[in-house]
Structure formats: structure tokens, C-alpha cells
Amino acid sequence: MSTENVSIALVQTSCTADPRDNLEKACLKIREAAASGARIVCLQELFTTLYFCQTEDYGPFDYAEPVPGPSTDRLQDLARELEVVIVASLFEKRARGLYHNTAAVIDADGRYLGKYRKMHIPDDPGFYEKFYFTPGDLGYRVFDTRYARIGVLICWDQWYPEAARLTALRGAEILFYPTAIGWASSEESQAVRRAQHQAWKTMQLSHAVANGVFVAAANRVGVEGELEFWGQSFVCDPFGQVIAEAAHQHETILMASCDRSRIGFYRAHWPFLRDRRIETYGELQRRYIED
Questions:
Q1: Omega cis (within 30) before 68
Q2: In a domain, 137, yes or no
Q3: Rounded CA gap, 182 and 288, in Å?
Q4: Tens digits of residue pLDDT in 143-187
Q5: Is 25 part of the annotated catalytic residue set?
Q6: Would you say the C-alpha torsion 202, 205, 207, 209 has a positive or negative sign?
Q7: Domain annotation covers residue 225
Q8: How far apart, in whole angstroms, are the C-alpha atoms of residue 125 and residue 257?
Q9: Annotated catalytic residue, options 15, 25, 27, 45
Q10: For residue 237, is it within any domain?
């Protein structure tokens, strides 16, 4: 086995209305993942709460906390004890009246390495995130952890090739996507459900192929209000081949091995980074090109 092989775990669970219970459950799952050999563990989006963005209400603002703060303190102790890297998505209170959807990254020695603030914020039926979250202002970031150089993006970021590209260009070897996505409970058509899920999955597989990186998406499961989260967390290699995938309805610790030495192989055979015509892409900064 390559010395560059790193074992990762995606924690796919349901949540309750009690943030303390959810944090304890996440810590237990991180322990289980570490016991199975995981070196990097990624939790799902907003893992300490129910997905409260289905409605616009002032109550959920009480869930927000500083990052770093109480939850990251607990996770830092756990990371240090288990010698694992933890990616944890939290509702960040930056200041009074200023909130973000944020992922904290904690290294295997317990050090807080920093955070990524979700850049793309949806505002759709059942996903009213603009009511709660200010768009991220830290840019696209990578984190040099003990086991790999990783990038973190969050849920709606999954649909934007620019986000994956810029993170990969900073040297990310694995893109982690903490996620909370599902079907409307009122959507009974199995064909529509399959199409929605397939579009989500295909988009992320394309990020892996176009950038020559591993992609790992950690989704939640369970029914909350009008949403049935579809789970199906997965890891794919830089050729877009799925190497591990969870079921849609079960809580799972999804394990996968990522051999980072293969990134060079993939990029040599499909040299997309070499052939980019960077001098022609300036118009990507325009909202729409009408002329």
C-alpha cells in the first residue's frame, strides 16, 4: 500500500432537536470511525441541529455559536485523543446579527487549523438559507493536515465548478463536502427522485474528473419536516469512479481509502490542468454575457 494512502470516513446520521445529543452522537461516531482506521473524519452539514432552514424563523439563531467555540473545543480534545483530523460544519455566530454556515478543520494533534465559510447560499422552497447565513468572505481555502492537504466546500457549493476548481488549484488533494440535501416529502415520483439525486452525484463526479482530485460528500439521513434527506454519502477517485457509497436511509460510517499518489497518474493521463487556457477565462467574472 502506498505511503500516501489515507483512510477517510464520512459520518452519515439523522439528527434530533437537541444539539447536545447531536454533538454526543457525532463524537461517538468519530470514535467508531477512528477505531476502524479512519485518519480524516467529515461530519454532515450543520450536524448539531435539525436542518432548520426549511422555514424562516428567528428561533434557530439561538443555535449559533462562535467558531472556534464550545463545539470545536470538544472536537479538538477528541481529535487530539484519537489522532484524527475532523471536518465539522457548524452554525457560526460571528457577531450580533451576523451569521455564517461554517466548516471548522481540526488537525490530528487537536490544533484548530481554521474555517471555511459557505460561499454559495441557496434561497429555495425548503432551503431558505439566505435568511440565516451571510455569504462566506474567506475565499476558497485548503488546509494542510497531518494526513493530506484537503479542501472543504459546503452543500450548495457542490453545484459550482468554479469553487471546486479554485480549491483544487490551491493544492487540495481531497475535496470534502458536508451536505444536507434531500427530496421534498411531497415528491412521490421515483423517476423525479432518481433524476434529482443523479444530477447531484454527477455534478460532483465531474469535479473529481476535471480537477484530478478525490471528492467526498457527507450527507444526512432521516425525515425532517417536509424534507426526506437522501443520504447516499459517497467518495470517488480522480477518474470519477465511486469507491464507496452509503445507502439512502441508513445511518452509516462510510470508510474509503484515498491513495494520493494516484493523483499524479490521473493528471498525467488526463492533463486538464496543463491545457487550461487561463488567458481566455476573464469573462467568467461576468454574471451573464449578452454581447
A1: yes
A2: yes
A3: 29
A4: 999 999 999 999 999 999 999 999 999 999 999 999 999 999 998
A5: no
A6: negative
A7: yes
A8: 37
A9: 45
A10: yes
The total number of residues shown for the chain amounts to 291
The residue range of the domain holding 48 is 5-285
CA-CA-CA-CA torsion sign (64, 66, 67, 71): negative
Per-residue pLDDT tens, the chain, 291 aa: give them: 457 999 999 999 999 999 999 999 999 999 999 999 999 999 999 999 999 999 999 999 999 999 999 999 999 999 999 999 999 999 999 999 999 999 999 999 999 999 999 999 999 999 999 999 999 999 999 999 999 999 999 999 999 999 999 999 999 999 999 999 999 999 899 999 999 999 999 999 999 999 999 999 999 999 999 999 999 999 999 999 999 999 999 999 999 999 999 999 999 999 999 999 999 999 999 999 998
Q: Is 155 a catalytic residue?
A: yes
pTM of the model: 0.97
Q: Which three cell numbers stand for residue 114?
A: 481554521
Answer yes or no: is 72 within a domain.
Answer: yes
CA-to-CA distance for 254 and 231, rounded, in angstroms? Answer: 11
Q: Cα–chain-centroid distance for residue 26? A: 15
The whole-angstrom separation of Cα 61 and Cα 97 is 9
What's the total number of domains in the chain?
Answer: 1
**CA 35/CA 184 separation, integer angstroms:** 36
Distance of CA 159 to the CA centre of its chain: 12
- Pairing relation of β-strands 174-178 and 149-152? parallel
pLDDT tens per residue, range 43-71: 999 999 999 999 999 999 999 999 999 99
DSSP string spanning 233-244? -EEE-TTS-EEE
CATH number for 149: 3.60.110.10
Q: What is the per-residue pLDDT for 1?
A: 42
**Marked catalytic residue, from 25, 29, 93, 118:** 118
